[in-house]
Amino acid sequence: MTDLEINLQKAGAYLARFKTDGVPNHIGGKSLPALDGETFETISPFDLKSIGKVAHGKAADVDRAAAAARSAFPAWAAMDGEMRKAPREQVWHDRRHSAIGNVWHLDSGLLGRPSCSPRASSSTPLGARLDISRI
C-alpha cells in the first residue's frame, strides 16, 4: 500500500464522523445546530466528494455565541494565566495527536490549495511527499 493510500484511509476514517454527525456550531461549550436548522454541504478539495453537512450559522447564531462569550468572560478574566493556558494546550495536544496525525489544516478556499508547508516532513501524513510547488 502506498503512502497516499495509507493517508487516504486514515483521513477517510477520521472524516467519516462528519458524514453521520455533521459539523454543528460550538457555542458555550455545547455542540448546537443552527437556530433555524439550516445546513450546507461541504466538499473535499481533494476529490470534490461530500464531507458532510455543516450548521449554517446566521446572525441569530452569532448573537447566541456572543451572549455565551459575554457570560463566560468574567470567570475567564478572573482566572490565573496558567489556568487559562491549560485548555489551549490540551486542544493543541489533541489536534497534534489526532487520528490522522500531524495534519496541517487544508484550506479549501477558492483554489482548494493546502495551506501546509511545502517542506512537510514524511511524518506528516497528508503532507508526506506533497510538492506544493506543483499545485
Give a description of the structure.
This protein is of the alpha+beta class. The chain has one domain. 41% of the residues lie in helices and 13% in strands. The chain has a two-stranded antiparallel ribbon. Strands 3-4 form a two-stranded antiparallel sheet. Strand 3 and strand 4 (50-55) form a beta hairpin. The longest helix has 20 residues, at 59-78.
- Per DSSP, what share of the residues sits in E-state strands of 2 or more residues? 5-15%
How many individual domains? 1
Q: How helix-rich are the residues, as a percent range? A: 40-55%
| Radius of gyration (Å) | 18 Å
Main beta sheet, described? 2 strands, antiparallel
Query: What structural class is derived from the secondary structure elements?
Result: alpha+beta
Please provide the ordered H/E string of secondary-structure elements.
Answer: HEEEEHH
Average of per-residue pLDDT values: 76
> Which geometry do the CA atoms define?
flat
Question: Terminal Cα separation, in Å?
Answer: 24 Å
Q: How many E-type strands? A: 4
Specify the number of helices: 3
- The largest beta-sheet arranges its strands as 1-2
Topology of this protein?
Elements: H1 3-21, E1 25-27, E2 30-32, E3 39-43, E4 50-55, H2 59-78, H3 81-96
Antiparallel strand pairs: 1-2, 3-4
Quick overview:
This protein is α+β, with helices and mostly antiparallel strands and 135 residues long. It has three helices and four strands. It is flat, with a radius of gyration of 18 Å.
